[in-house]
């Protein structure tokens, strides 16, 4: 099962439960708070998803490791490529 199918299944389940709750709570028989909560539940879920996503991205950027050896190796490969191109007659700044 691909991630797309998993996400679509979860979204479909959420929409189904939300629609059932929204339709099954009559206006006169529920509190305003419950009706308001059910009405804005998709917004709250989206807001929670966004906060969690930004938190995960921020944490991974904060804990990102530098690769000093790889950076030196890449710079050396760039210099080697420039030298090779100069030998072949290219002008490089």
Number of helices: 4
Q: Measure the end-to-end span.
A: 51 Å
* Gyration radius over CA: 27 Å
Oligomeric state of the chains in view: single chain
* Helical residue percent band: over 70%
Please state the average pLDDT score. Answer: 88
Determine the structural class based on helices, strands and strand pairing.
Answer: mainly alpha
- Largest beta-sheet characterization: none
Uncertain regions spanning at least 5 consecutive residues: none
Characterise this structure.
Helix content is 77%, strand content 0%. The chain has 4 helices and no strands. The longest helix is centred in the first third of the chain and has 22 residues, at 3-24. The protein starts with a helix and ends in a 6-residue tail after the last helix.
Helix-strand blueprint:
Blueprint: H1 3-24, H2 32-39, H3 41-62, H4 68-87
Give the gist of this structure.
The chain is mostly helical. It has helices spanning 3-24, 32-39, 41-62, 68-87.
State the main characteristics.
mainly alpha, rod-shaped, 93 residues
